[in-house]
Amino acid sequence: MTKVTVLGAAGGIGQPLSLLLKMSPYVSTLALYDLRLAPGVARDLSHINTNATCVGFDKDAIGEALDGAHIVVIPAGVPRKPGMTRDDLFKINAGIVANLVRAAAQHAPRARILVISNPVNSTVPVACETLKKMGAFQPGKVMGVTTLDVVRAQTFLSDSLGADSYSRESMKRAVTVVGGHSGATIVPVLLDPKLRSKLVGRRRYDSYVHRVQFGGDEVVEAKQGAGSATLSMALAGYHFADQILRSIHLEKPDVAPLPAFVYLPGIEGGAELQKKLNTKTEYFAAPVELRRGDVVRIDTKWLDSLGDLERKTLQVCLGELDGNIQKGRRFVQSKL
Ligand code: NAD
Ligand code: LMR
After folding, report:
1. In testing the pocket of ligand 2, which one of 93, 149, 220 has its CB within 8 Å of the most ligand atoms?
2. CA 331 to CA 328: how far, in whole Å?
3. How far apart are CA 121 and CA 124, in angstroms?
4. With bands split at pLDDT 50, 70 and 90, how would you rate the model's confidence at 219?
5. Secondary structure (DSSP) of 66-133
6. Cα 97 to averaged position of ligand 2 atoms, centre (Å)
7. Inter-axis angle of helices 215-222 and 147-161, to 10 degrees?
């Protein structure tokens, strides 16, 4: 019996993500919470003939929505409009994430918390620091969802190399993405050096990296003020949640370990990663190993296949990431 609660379930990501979760054989209860419309969305989904029971909760029923949840997914918050950076969302979304995480700690203390709300590089530190303050922080249970970067990195790699010879499906183990989730902090790492050489040889490496780093802007521009990626994000969020659900149910993952933006010091492999990258950063996205749905180890194997170009991109990433992380930490620490 596994309960998943979606906070922000009536939004652009929340609705399709809830639909995908309703299709999951691992979900027995799907609880939808939003400031508006969640009961309506839940009633709609509840007519689908899959086993999960789907219930919606009004604004003042967050405790009930969270009660006993094994996984809490947070896509609540405002999205970007053209001309904005993810950091511009911090003012509004930091408070939303802090309040929702506080409620999750009170009503679902054993839940894994999946943070989608942007800016992830700062909202994850907000979530972790909030939990630390409450004495409720468990490092392996808080994950920033960066899966969309991996989905894009695979799609764009196939595009760059030529989809006739390099199909999108065949790219699933060819590339991962580490670092953070905004602009220069997004670092695609090619796991097959031959593919990197091909991109470099065809002079497509720089444009490929740029497209992965700024793929979010492409969608924001194309939606002309109506928001950012929702459908591709819902799929990415579902893939990530599915890995956790499979791990809870002792099933093998069906894809290579996905990265998550996590707090390094509390997790095995975190100190090794810091040492190998020569950094003190406390938060970083890297592929994670799960046990019973919790992050138990940070994978560092990808470091072995790094090329000089990726090392340079990583240095830029680490320089930028720190400011994002400190902003999140300061936000929580400044509140009494
Ligand atoms: P949206 O505006 O369509 O939906 C957000 C929903 O959150 C709304 O239904 C709103 O009512 C709800 N909400 C706001 N405050 C809430 C609160 N306190 N409690 C419960 N619900 C609340 O936005 P969206 O397109 O779904 O995007 C949501 C967030 O996800 C944005 O911050 C966006 O930047 C981010 N995002 C992240 C990624 C990623 O890769 N991590 C990808 C895409 C979007
Ligand atoms: C994305 O990468 O699509 C999301 O982070 C949304 C955004 O603001 O770009």
Report:
1. 220
2. 5
3. 6
4. very high
5. HTT-SEEEE--SPPP-TT--GGGGHHHHHHHHHHHHHHHHHH-TT-EEEE-SSPHHHHHHHHHHHHHH
6. 17
7. 90
Q: What domains lie within the chain, and their CATH numbers?
A: 3-144 (3.40.50.720), 147-333 (3.90.110.10)
Q: Measured between alpha carbons, how far is 171 from 174 in angstroms, rounded to an integer? A: 5
Residue 336 pLDDT > 80, yes or no?
no
- Which protein residues are within 6 Å of ligand 2, measured from CB? 79-80, 86, 118, 148, 216, 219-220, 228-229
Q: Indicate the pTM of the whole model.
A: 0.98
Angle at 204 between CA 183 and CA 165, to 5 degrees: 115
Residue with tokens 């799929």: 235
Cα 68 to averaged position of ligand 1 atoms, centre (Å): 23
Judged by its nearest atom, the ligand closest to the C-alpha of residue 8 is 1
Residue 216 has pLDDT above 80, yes or no: yes
CB of 293 within 8 A of CB of 248? yes
Q: According to the model, what pLDDT value does residue 145 have? A: 98
What is the rounded average pLDDT of the residues 70-97? 98
- CA separation for the pair 112, 110 (Å, rounded): 7
Ligand closest to Cα of 90 equals 1
H helix count then E strand count, the chain:
12, 11
Residue 253: per-residue pLDDT: 82
